[in-house]
Please model this.
Amino acid sequence: MQIREQIKLVNIALSGTLDLYRIWAKKHQLNYNALVILYTLNDYKKCTQKQICEWWALPKQTVHGILLDFEKKGYITITASTKNKRERLIAFTENGEIFASSILNRLYQMEENAMHKLGEEKRKQLIESNTKYYELLKEEIENG
Model:
């Protein structure tokens, strides 16, 4: 198989995986971006809008709009950072944790089931291969 075909297959798999998250979000009356924000807040407990934007390559306005909606619904609090007053820390409220759990708990279970089915060795290979490909591609793009 030619390298271009291999790259195409990797990109199809990555894109398809992300699309599964879009489908899950839609089933819960959310869009993909709102889902990844919930996912991030659930993983990190507190983070900044800037971090969310950087981690998911999302536009600042998109994240800001979703965060305002979540704040209006009482799902999150936005407070000034003690280290940098210009920076705002985002965290779930109790209602936000309940809301996020109602969407994420089943998703986490399905992710874990899929990973268990892969087996320990393939999980290790998946992580190592994806990480190494990311690092090499990043290096190429930064130097390219």
